[in-house]
Write a structure and sequence with these properties.
The structure is a single chain. By secondary structure, the protein is an alpha/beta fold. 43% of the residues lie in helices and 12% in strands. The protein folds into 4 domains: 90 residues, no CATH class; 151 residues, P-loop containing nucleotide triphosphate hydrolases (Rossmann fold); 44 residues; 165 residues, Alpha-Beta Plaits.
Length: 528
Amino acid sequence: MTSLHADEAFLDHYHFTHDPFAARVPGFKFFPAQRKPVLGQLHHLARYSQLLLVVAGPHGSGKTLLRQALVASTNKQAVQSVIFSAQGAAEPDAVLRQVAQGLQVQQPELRAILAQVGQLALTGQEVYVLVDDAERLSDAALTSLLTLAAGNAEGRPHVFLFAESGLIPRLELLADGEECFHAIELQPYAEDETRDYLVQRLEGAGQGLELFSDEQIAAIHERSEGWPGAINQVARETLVEAMLAQRGASRRAGFAVSLPKRHLLALAVVGVGVLAAWLMQGRPPSDELAAPTAAPLSLAQAERPAPEEPVAPPVAGGAEAPPIEFAGANQPLPLPLVGESQPVIREPLAQAAGLAPAEEVDAVEGASAGDLRVAEPLGVPAPATPAPFAPPVTTPAAPPAPKVEPVAPAVKPVAAAPVTKPAVASVPAKPAPVADWYAAQGGSRYTLQILGARAEASAQAFVRQHGAEYHYFKKRHQGQPLYVVTYGSFATREAAQGALKSLPAQVQAGKPWPRTFASIRLEIARAR
């Protein structure tokens, strides 16, 4: 049975309209809730970070689907995307040629590409360079992309790499201790998300989850470890095994009536054997002495058991009766069942991600000057009045430098200042950017970047409301001042990431991310 026939048998047995677990199914869109914050974090970092961004996960973890969602949820009027795979462009020349073609640049050179990026920036357009299968890139190609992401005075594109987790150690070696990229590692599906994934796959093919038992669903989740690509493979194997077992049982139970022609053939052979035995028993004795050469045969016939013993008689003519064979009765059904991948239908996935184009690109740029530049969960506005909270205790963090202490008392009296004296209260109520505090921190220490605001008053209000652990500094973004609020001072990246869980839900919704004080001091110096 060929692979095509095996696929047809699989589809006919379960009455599928198509293979529900093929690698690419047109129109299939599954974007669980855990992936929406990742998409929001990518938009946030693309807007406020100058680092190369890496989305890492094993094969079949949904990186390509996330890349499609990122492109679909951007404002096409404000973002020009260049998309290619490293399978056909693994070297620096091929990478630059792909980017140059996407931007319609004649010369595939770094300077010419950055000049075109700068020209597009003047018209209000940003450039996204998205690379699939980035683990296939050579070290020289990765170096070229790091240089491209850093940009120059003319322009700077946003570079996204979608790769397996093994790419991160290679980038760390190329970075040589510098903070030039930010990695986001995808997480597998939980068991309930695996169940929802199977439901959507099966319903798209015209069936439902009743094809699997609860035990089978638990086994599929355990064997696949929650990665969607492995879920497809294990679920398909489970259905194929059930189909083969069901067909084998039905063949053993009813083979005598399921194949009428073969059954009639068997009856005919048995009838011929019975007739031959009856004829041999009725021979006269003279036949036994007819020829000397026939004596051994006649003696054997004389010693033959009585007719009532169940001995199969020979067929007339001296030849043995051919055994009854059923073609294919003991042959397993060969089911490779791995069809060719279907082409990707790149439909907009903004609705699947719960987004509208205006919510990702410049959603905050159109707000008033005092609005906070907080990266919120996409499609969910931040609460108007955040609840107060006690500043969390970060155990791994080192104590603040002595110069930080005067800042906290300067903020608290402002809240109690009389309303009748706004002129007097405005002087202490305006906490200036604490550049000296950032300079006092070690360059290798980490802080959490919380948000960015175009208006300094917004950053001051946030710091006043949330306490002395919050500070802000001034930088320049797209030629305009931006006031960035940070939280805490931590000895390691792990300590900073551990402190995220203790922050209020409203602050966590902005997807804070750790960064070094060395990079902050560099931005402060550039803003002067």
